[in-house]
């Protein structure tokens, strides 16, 4: 696990199986094992939106519920294994 400060109030946490991007103290986007990107569908602020857009840097991403990103930071037993990104 590696923590990397990438800008003012912007941090990336490398979990080995995913990289999770934080704006301030909130995980808001991630790059998953397969190389795909996800972004929270939750709106926090103009600044957080700018942080996310800068981190994604024009890459294709999927909007997901905040809980899906939070799940990356919890034990697998706390996550819904039947999560369907299309739902």
Task: Record keyword descriptors for this entry.
36% strand, 87 residues, alpha+beta
SSE blueprint and pairings:
Elements: E1 2-7, E2 10-14, E3 18-23, E4 26-32, E5 37-40, H1 46-56, E6 62-64, H2 66-71
Parallel strand pairs: 5-6
Antiparallel strand pairs: 1-2, 2-3, 3-4, 4-5
Describe the structure.
By secondary structure, this protein is an alpha+beta fold. It is built from 2 helices and 6 strands. The protein has helices spanning 46-56, 66-71, and strands at residues 2-7, 10-14, 18-23, 26-32, 37-40, 62-64. The protein has a 6-stranded mixed beta sheet with strand order 1-2-3-4-5-6. β4 and β5 form a beta hairpin. The termini are far apart. The mean pLDDT is 90.
Question: Taking Cα atoms only, what radius of gyration do you get, to the nearest Å?
Answer: 12 Å
- Report helical residue fraction: 10-25%
State the major sheet. 6 strands, mixed
Shape: globular
Q: Write down the overall mean pLDDT.
A: 90
Order of helices and strands: EEEEEHEH
Walk across the major sheet and give the strand order.
Answer: 1-2-3-4-5-6
> How would you classify the helix and strand content by structural class?
alpha+beta
- The share of residues in extended strands comes to 35-45%
Poorly predicted spans? none
- Total E-strand runs: 6
The N- and C-terminal alpha carbons lie at a distance of 31 Å
Number of helices: 2
């Amino acid at each position: 696990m590696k923590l990397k400060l990438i800008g003012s109030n912007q941090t990336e946490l490398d979990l080995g199986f995913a990289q999770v991007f934080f704006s301030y103290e909130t995980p808001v986007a991630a790059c998953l094992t397969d190389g795909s990107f996800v972004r929270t569908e939750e709106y926090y602020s103009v600044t957080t939106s700018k942080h996310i857009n800068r981190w994604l840097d024009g890459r294709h991403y999927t909007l997901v519920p905040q809980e899906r990103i939070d799940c990356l930071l919890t034990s697998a037993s706390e996550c819904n294994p039947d999560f369907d990104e299309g739902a």
